[in-house]
Amino acid sequence: MIVELENALYSASIDSMGAELKRLDNRIDGTKYMFNGDPFWWNGSAPVLFPIVGGLSGGSYTFEGETYQLGSHGFARKSEFVVVEKSADRAVFMLHANDKTRVQYPFNFRLTVLFNLEMTGITVTYQVENFGTNTMYFSIGSHPAFNLPFVGGSLEHYYIEFEQPEANSRYFFVDGCISAVTEPVFNNSKHIFLNSTLFDRGPLILKDVASRSVSIRKTRSFRAIRVSFDAPNVAVWSKPNRAPFICIEPWWGTPDPIGFSETFDKKPGIRSLSPREVFTTRYAVEIQ
Asked: Helix, strand or coil for residue 57?
């Protein structure tokens, strides 16, 4: 089911399959900001990552003596959400634990995804609730993909700007897990300039960033897309060979390190919720 939102300046489409933002358009000039999910490049647009971010070592995890198989980025992106609220510029989607999720994830959860279309863009809010009687463990993230270019020019005319100067090194993906190998990318600057080889070795995975926003900007232009968040980790990704999109991914969690063998509750970056506790976070896409 596709849910449409609209205000005086923007329109958006959200698919109830995965509660995935599929479209964000400027109604005045027709600019399309979200990647359309062309499977030649990548079949996503903004999947919700839950209850893990990235992959698990060996594709499985153990918890309280049981082993569970769970695919990369979790099951929310492939689950049908229920639309529980809809107005012209707001929609709320909900996913409850069920027999299918419990085979992969033994916790009694409710995941709510709320979309607010605003005059500056769109805000996406996540609520994770623990309806069980024991502590629940999870990670969550988003994976929005933006058209590139979105205001003309070529790849080399665009750059990524972090809110603050960063000194972080990137981590590397190996079979969905994080390698111990790192590489500097900032040199205490705020900018990453795009080129055709930047993503040849996978996404730029950055832990514990100081910035609370990351922008996609065009040189000699005031036009930009800014993603604001309160997440500790961010990934920046595109396919090699000049794919027509770039992802700015806020992550409240991290993939497993290569060879990780401890239990799920010891997973790096994992979050915990006591019974009846609620975790709320959000990110915003602001068009400038």
From this structure: helix
Taking the whole predicted model, whether its pTM rises above 0.90 is answered as yes
Q: What is the pLDDT of residues 135-157, one digit of tens each?
A: 999 999 999 999 999 988 888 99
Say which CATH class 2-287 falls into. mainly beta
Q: What is the pLDDT of residues 19-40, one digit of tens each?
A: 999 999 999 999 999 999 999 9
Compute CA distances 199 → 18, 118, 169, 187, 243, whole Å.
26, 32, 15, 18, 10
CA angle 179, 180, 185 (to 5 degrees): 85
CA dist 234 → 37, 75, 130, 162, 275 (Å) = 21, 20, 25, 11, 28
How many angstroms separate the CA atoms of 270 and 78, rounded? 21
Q: Report the distance separating Cα 140 and Cα 42, nearest Å.
A: 21
